Amino acid sequence: MSDLAWWQRGVIYQVYPRSFQDENGDGVGDLAGITARLEYLRMLGVDAVWISPVHPSPMADFGYDVADYCAIAPLFGTLGDFDRLVAHAHELGLKVLLDFVPNHSSDQHPWFIESRTSSDNPKRNWYLWRDPAPDGGPPNNWLSRMGGSAWEKDAVTGQYYYHAFLREQPDLNWRNADVRTAMDRVLRFWLDRGVDGFRVDVLWLLIKDALFRDNPPNPQFKAGEPDHHRQLQTYTEDQ
Question: Is the pTM of this model over 0.70?
Answer without folding.
Answer: yes
